[in-house]
# Entry
Amino acid sequence: EPEVTQTPSHQVTQMGQEVILRCVPISNHLYFYWYRQILGQKVEFLVSFYNNEISEKSEIFDDQFSVERPDGSNFTLKIRSTKLEDSAMYFCASSLGQGYNEQFFGPGTRLTVL
Amino acid sequence: RKEVEQDPGPFNVPEGATVAFNCTYSNSASQSFFWYRQDCRKEPKLLMSVYSSGNEDGRFTAQLNRASQYISLLIRDSKLSDSATYLCVAPGGTYKYIFGTGTRLKVLA
# Structure
């Protein structure tokens, strides 16, 4: 069964450093998403991506964040200068179609900012 | 009203019990909804989609009430393995999904 994969599973970084989180969506899916979940809190939408551009982003997704699909398989989330409050689980998801299609999630990357 | 609202629980039920969760949503234009299951520190896993009045899959039934803007999830014959957090999800735009805070379920032996 196809699945979304994410690397690394855990990333520890120093405040102010740049991190890149990687995702490989399901191969025939066209829509890609990033979410974050701070420990003990709800899953929060960050950004959606389709046809090589951002479709929608939340207030959380400020200038410190960027996304990219550098090749036909990877989908990345970059945080330029990490803050303590960026510590969270980051989930990548993909869906076949827009809006009303089910999203499938990767196992997540746990980001710890020290 | 919050975009997607759920009772956080926990709901503690004995094995074999029937339990129901409700979720309210604010966007009356939303057409489809989803229930996900999340185990501790794991990713959300799709449980059910709700596109019209309801959906049933084995022991799980989801219903949609557009007039009152809520969806429900009914679990019959609860198993220990059903213990998890159940997340209600609604579209927050064409390319955006809003998650509820989740309802914790503990099924007790």
